[in-house]
Sequence to fold (259 residues):
Amino acid sequence: MAEKFKSDELMIIESARHIRDGETVFAGTGMPLVAAMYAQKSHAPHMCFVIETGSIAPQVLPVPTSVSDPKGMHRAAKLGTLREVLGCLLQRGMVDVGFLGGAQIDQFANINSTVIGDYQQPKVRFPGSGGANDIASHAKRILVICRHEKRRFPEKCAYITSPGYINGPEGRKRAGIKNDHPDITVVTDLAVMAVDKSTGKLQVFKLMPGVSFEQVQANTGFPITASPNMTTVDLPTEENLRILHQEVDPEGEYLGKED
Fold:
Protein backbone atom coordinates (compact mmCIF):
# COMPACT_ATOMS: atom_id res chain seq x y z
CA MET A 1 0.00 0.00 0.00
CA ALA A 2 1.08 3.56 -0.66
CA GLU A 3 2.42 5.36 2.40
CA LYS A 4 1.61 8.84 1.07
CA PHE A 5 -1.38 9.92 -0.97
CA LYS A 6 -3.71 12.89 -1.29
CA SER A 7 -7.41 12.82 -0.46
CA ASP A 8 -8.35 13.79 -4.04
CA GLU A 9 -6.30 10.86 -5.38
CA LEU A 10 -8.10 8.32 -3.21
CA MET A 11 -11.48 9.94 -3.95
CA ILE A 12 -10.89 9.41 -7.69
CA ILE A 13 -9.56 5.86 -7.24
CA GLU A 14 -12.45 4.86 -4.95
CA SER A 15 -15.11 6.25 -7.29
CA ALA A 16 -13.52 4.37 -10.20
CA ARG A 17 -13.80 1.12 -8.18
CA HIS A 18 -17.58 1.42 -8.58
CA ILE A 19 -17.23 0.92 -12.35
CA ARG A 20 -17.17 -2.69 -13.59
CA ASP A 21 -15.29 -3.95 -16.63
CA GLY A 22 -17.55 -4.11 -19.68
CA GLU A 23 -20.01 -1.48 -18.49
CA THR A 24 -21.12 1.50 -20.56
CA VAL A 25 -20.29 4.69 -18.64
CA PHE A 26 -21.55 8.17 -19.53
CA ALA A 27 -19.15 10.60 -17.84
CA GLY A 28 -19.60 14.32 -17.29
CA THR A 29 -16.78 16.83 -17.47
CA GLY A 30 -14.15 17.31 -14.72
CA MET A 31 -13.53 14.72 -12.01
CA PRO A 32 -16.00 12.18 -13.51
CA LEU A 33 -13.91 12.13 -16.71
CA VAL A 34 -10.70 11.66 -14.70
CA ALA A 35 -12.13 8.81 -12.60
CA ALA A 36 -13.76 7.03 -15.56
CA MET A 37 -10.52 7.25 -17.49
CA TYR A 38 -8.63 5.83 -14.49
CA ALA A 39 -11.07 2.88 -14.44
CA GLN A 40 -10.45 2.23 -18.15
CA LYS A 41 -6.66 2.27 -17.68
CA SER A 42 -6.70 0.08 -14.55
CA HIS A 43 -9.35 -2.56 -13.85
CA ALA A 44 -11.96 -1.88 -16.57
CA PRO A 45 -10.17 -1.94 -19.97
CA HIS A 46 -13.35 -3.05 -21.75
CA MET A 47 -15.46 -0.23 -20.34
CA CYS A 48 -17.39 1.61 -23.06
CA PHE A 49 -16.76 5.30 -22.47
CA VAL A 50 -19.43 7.75 -23.68
CA ILE A 51 -18.87 11.50 -23.74
CA GLU A 52 -21.65 14.06 -24.00
CA THR A 53 -20.39 15.66 -27.20
CA GLY A 54 -20.92 12.39 -29.09
CA SER A 55 -17.75 10.34 -28.68
CA ILE A 56 -18.53 6.63 -28.17
CA ALA A 57 -15.91 4.13 -26.91
CA PRO A 58 -12.79 6.28 -27.40
CA GLN A 59 -9.37 5.13 -26.24
CA VAL A 60 -8.83 8.32 -24.30
CA LEU A 61 -5.38 9.87 -24.34
CA PRO A 62 -4.24 11.75 -21.19
CA VAL A 63 -7.28 13.24 -19.58
CA PRO A 64 -9.32 15.72 -21.67
CA THR A 65 -9.76 19.21 -20.23
CA SER A 66 -13.40 19.29 -21.36
CA VAL A 67 -15.95 17.08 -23.11
CA SER A 68 -15.03 18.86 -26.38
CA ASP A 69 -11.29 18.16 -26.12
CA PRO A 70 -10.10 16.05 -29.13
CA LYS A 71 -8.21 13.82 -26.65
CA GLY A 72 -11.61 12.38 -25.73
CA MET A 73 -12.18 11.34 -29.35
CA HIS A 74 -9.02 9.27 -29.98
CA ARG A 75 -9.84 6.04 -31.85
CA ALA A 76 -13.51 6.32 -30.89
CA ALA A 77 -15.78 3.60 -32.29
CA LYS A 78 -18.03 6.46 -33.39
CA LEU A 79 -17.90 10.24 -33.34
CA GLY A 80 -21.60 10.83 -32.96
CA THR A 81 -23.78 13.72 -31.92
CA LEU A 82 -25.77 14.81 -28.87
CA ARG A 83 -28.79 13.09 -30.40
CA GLU A 84 -26.96 9.80 -30.73
CA VAL A 85 -25.46 9.66 -27.22
CA LEU A 86 -28.38 11.22 -25.31
CA GLY A 87 -31.23 9.93 -27.43
CA CYS A 88 -30.02 6.72 -29.04
CA LEU A 89 -27.98 5.38 -26.10
CA LEU A 90 -28.94 7.02 -22.80
CA GLN A 91 -32.68 7.50 -23.24
CA ARG A 92 -33.01 3.96 -24.63
CA GLY A 93 -31.68 2.61 -21.34
CA MET A 94 -28.32 1.43 -22.71
CA VAL A 95 -26.05 3.25 -20.22
CA ASP A 96 -25.05 1.31 -17.10
CA VAL A 97 -23.45 4.14 -15.12
CA GLY A 98 -24.09 7.87 -15.28
CA PHE A 99 -21.12 9.66 -13.71
CA LEU A 100 -21.64 13.24 -12.51
CA GLY A 101 -20.23 16.03 -10.35
CA GLY A 102 -22.28 18.81 -8.81
CA ALA A 103 -22.11 22.12 -7.00
CA GLN A 104 -24.76 21.08 -4.43
CA ILE A 105 -26.08 17.65 -3.43
CA ASP A 106 -28.92 17.39 -0.92
CA GLN A 107 -30.16 14.65 1.42
CA PHE A 108 -32.15 12.99 -1.41
CA ALA A 109 -29.09 13.04 -3.72
CA ASN A 110 -30.62 15.73 -5.94
CA ILE A 111 -27.92 17.74 -7.73
CA ASN A 112 -27.79 21.46 -8.39
CA SER A 113 -25.45 22.62 -11.14
CA THR A 114 -27.57 25.61 -12.21
CA VAL A 115 -28.04 28.45 -9.71
CA ILE A 116 -28.03 29.58 -6.07
CA GLY A 117 -30.48 32.33 -5.13
CA ASP A 118 -33.19 33.85 -7.29
CA TYR A 119 -33.13 32.32 -10.76
CA GLN A 120 -33.33 35.70 -12.50
CA GLN A 121 -30.90 37.46 -10.14
CA PRO A 122 -28.81 34.66 -8.67
CA LYS A 123 -26.07 34.90 -6.08
CA VAL A 124 -24.14 32.27 -8.06
CA ARG A 125 -24.74 31.01 -11.61
CA PHE A 126 -23.26 27.57 -12.43
CA PRO A 127 -22.75 26.07 -15.91
CA GLY A 128 -26.20 24.46 -15.98
CA SER A 129 -27.36 20.99 -16.90
CA GLY A 130 -25.74 20.10 -20.20
CA GLY A 131 -26.63 16.40 -20.33
CA ALA A 132 -26.66 15.96 -16.53
CA ASN A 133 -30.46 15.81 -16.14
CA ASP A 134 -30.69 13.19 -18.89
CA ILE A 135 -27.90 11.16 -17.26
CA ALA A 136 -29.49 11.27 -13.77
CA SER A 137 -32.91 10.40 -15.20
CA HIS A 138 -31.98 7.54 -17.52
CA ALA A 139 -28.75 5.80 -16.45
CA LYS A 140 -29.21 2.46 -14.67
CA ARG A 141 -26.88 3.52 -11.82
CA ILE A 142 -25.72 6.99 -10.84
CA LEU A 143 -22.27 7.77 -9.51
CA VAL A 144 -21.36 11.21 -8.16
CA ILE A 145 -17.97 12.59 -7.15
CA CYS A 146 -17.30 15.86 -5.32
CA ARG A 147 -15.37 17.30 -2.40
CA HIS A 148 -17.17 17.14 0.95
CA GLU A 149 -18.00 20.60 2.29
CA LYS A 150 -21.03 21.70 4.33
CA ARG A 151 -22.01 24.31 1.71
CA ARG A 152 -22.04 21.58 -0.97
CA PHE A 153 -24.37 19.32 1.04
CA PRO A 154 -27.41 21.44 2.04
CA GLU A 155 -30.62 19.88 3.35
CA LYS A 156 -32.37 21.05 0.18
CA CYS A 157 -30.81 22.11 -3.12
CA ALA A 158 -31.55 25.67 -4.15
CA TYR A 159 -32.41 24.28 -7.61
CA ILE A 160 -32.74 20.68 -8.79
CA THR A 161 -30.83 20.30 -12.04
CA SER A 162 -30.55 16.51 -11.92
CA PRO A 163 -32.96 14.35 -9.91
CA GLY A 164 -31.89 12.05 -7.13
CA TYR A 165 -34.85 10.67 -5.17
CA ILE A 166 -36.41 14.21 -5.29
CA ASN A 167 -38.30 14.20 -1.93
CA GLY A 168 -38.55 10.61 -0.75
CA PRO A 169 -38.44 6.94 -1.71
CA GLU A 170 -41.22 7.32 -4.33
CA GLY A 171 -40.23 10.79 -5.52
CA ARG A 172 -38.88 9.69 -8.90
CA LYS A 173 -41.89 7.48 -9.55
CA ARG A 174 -44.31 10.33 -8.78
CA ALA A 175 -42.36 12.56 -11.16
CA GLY A 176 -42.83 10.01 -13.95
CA ILE A 177 -39.19 8.95 -14.20
CA LYS A 178 -39.14 5.40 -15.56
CA ASN A 179 -35.92 4.46 -13.76
CA ASP A 180 -37.61 5.08 -10.43
CA HIS A 181 -35.33 3.35 -7.88
CA PRO A 182 -31.73 3.45 -9.17
CA ASP A 183 -28.64 2.88 -7.08
CA ILE A 184 -27.07 6.29 -6.38
CA THR A 185 -23.57 6.46 -4.87
CA VAL A 186 -21.76 9.65 -3.85
CA VAL A 187 -17.98 9.51 -3.32
CA THR A 188 -16.27 12.41 -1.54
CA ASP A 189 -12.89 13.03 0.04
CA LEU A 190 -14.44 12.09 3.43
CA ALA A 191 -16.84 9.23 2.75
CA VAL A 192 -18.82 7.01 0.42
CA MET A 193 -22.58 7.55 0.69
CA ALA A 194 -25.44 5.80 -1.06
CA VAL A 195 -29.20 6.26 -1.13
CA ASP A 196 -31.11 4.08 1.33
CA LYS A 197 -34.07 3.14 -0.88
CA SER A 198 -36.43 2.79 2.12
CA THR A 199 -36.07 6.51 2.91
CA GLY A 200 -34.72 7.92 -0.35
CA LYS A 201 -31.96 9.62 1.67
CA LEU A 202 -28.18 9.37 1.61
CA GLN A 203 -26.50 7.15 4.19
CA VAL A 204 -22.78 6.70 4.95
CA PHE A 205 -21.45 3.29 3.90
CA LYS A 206 -17.68 3.86 3.98
CA LEU A 207 -15.30 6.34 5.61
CA MET A 208 -12.05 7.47 4.05
CA PRO A 209 -8.99 6.29 6.03
CA GLY A 210 -8.45 8.44 9.14
CA VAL A 211 -11.85 10.14 8.87
CA SER A 212 -14.47 9.79 11.61
CA PHE A 213 -18.24 9.69 11.17
CA GLU A 214 -18.41 12.85 13.31
CA GLN A 215 -16.23 14.67 10.74
CA VAL A 216 -18.59 13.62 7.97
CA GLN A 217 -21.63 14.84 9.94
CA ALA A 218 -19.91 18.15 10.77
CA ASN A 219 -19.34 18.78 7.06
CA THR A 220 -22.86 17.82 5.99
CA GLY A 221 -25.77 20.28 6.12
CA PHE A 222 -28.39 17.73 7.14
CA PRO A 223 -28.57 14.87 9.67
CA ILE A 224 -27.08 11.76 8.11
CA THR A 225 -27.05 8.18 9.36
CA ALA A 226 -24.39 5.50 9.21
CA SER A 227 -25.04 2.10 7.71
CA PRO A 228 -24.81 -0.73 10.30
CA ASN A 229 -22.22 -2.26 7.96
CA MET A 230 -20.10 0.87 7.58
CA THR A 231 -16.48 0.09 6.65
CA THR A 232 -13.31 1.96 5.66
CA VAL A 233 -12.21 2.62 2.07
CA ASP A 234 -9.22 0.52 0.97
CA LEU A 235 -5.91 2.37 0.74
CA PRO A 236 -4.42 2.98 -2.72
CA THR A 237 -1.36 1.08 -3.93
CA GLU A 238 1.76 2.60 -5.48
CA GLU A 239 0.58 1.14 -8.83
CA ASN A 240 -2.80 2.87 -8.44
CA LEU A 241 -1.03 6.21 -8.01
CA ARG A 242 1.38 5.54 -10.90
CA ILE A 243 -1.50 4.95 -13.31
CA LEU A 244 -3.28 8.05 -12.06
CA HIS A 245 -0.30 10.37 -12.46
CA GLN A 246 1.58 8.83 -15.39
CA GLU A 247 -1.23 7.54 -17.62
CA VAL A 248 -4.34 9.53 -16.71
CA ASP A 249 -3.15 13.02 -15.75
CA PRO A 250 0.59 13.26 -16.59
CA GLU A 251 0.44 17.04 -17.02
CA GLY A 252 -1.23 17.53 -13.63
CA GLU A 253 -4.26 19.25 -15.18
CA TYR A 254 -6.55 18.08 -12.39
CA LEU A 255 -4.29 16.63 -9.70
CA GLY A 256 -1.28 18.92 -9.89
CA LYS A 257 2.26 17.66 -10.22
CA GLU A 258 3.49 14.80 -8.04
CA ASP A 259 5.50 15.84 -4.98
Observations:
- The first strand starts at residue 24 and ends at 27.
- The helical segments are 7-16, 31-41, 82-90, 132-138, 171-174, 213-218, 238-248.
- The radius of gyration is 17 Å.
- The chain has a mean pLDDT of 92.
